[in-house]
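Data availability (excerpt). The following record was deposited with the supplementary files.
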Amino acid sequence: MDILLDEVGRGTSTFDGLSLAWAIGEYLHDNPQHAAKTLFATHYHEMTELGKLLPGVRNYQMAVKESGGDIVFLRRVVEGSASKSYGLEVARLAGLPRGVIDRAREILLNLEANELDVTGKPKFARHLPSRKNDPQPTLFEIANEAVLDDLRALDVESLGPDDALALLRGFKQRLM
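Predicted structure:
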C-alpha cells in the first residue's frame, strides 16, 4: 500500500495543522499495521525534524538554484530538506505586484522576529496609513528613481553589446 498526503492541516491554524500532520506522520511510522510507503507533501518545515527522530523517515525536496537574487526551480527531487521557503519568490514569479511582495516581506520579517506593537498585536495587523499623501519616498522608490536617472543619462548609441549587457545586469541587481 502507498499513501500520498498533500498539505495535511491546510485550512486550519498553523499550530493545528502542524500538530495534525506531525501526529499522522508518527501514527503511520509507528504502527506496523498501518505502515506504508508514504509521500507527505507539506509546507510545515518543522515536519523535517521527523527525519531526525524516526528511523523510517527520509526528507526530499525540489532542487532550486539561486544566483544573483534569482531562483530557478530545477524540477528535480533530491534528498534533504529545504533550508528556506520560496513562497515570496514564487509569488513574484507569478506576477504579483511589487508592492504586495515588498509588504509581504515586511510582514514576514515581523512574524519571524515575533514583533508586537504597543497593544500587543503582531505588527503586520496594525492599520497602516495610506501613502497617497505621503511625500516621503520609500527606499525602493529611491532606488528605482536612481536607476531611472541613470537610464535617462545613458548614451545608448555609444554602448557596445557587452557594455549594454553589463549595464542591464547592474540595473537588474539594483532593482531587486
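Summary of structural features: The mean pLDDT is 81.
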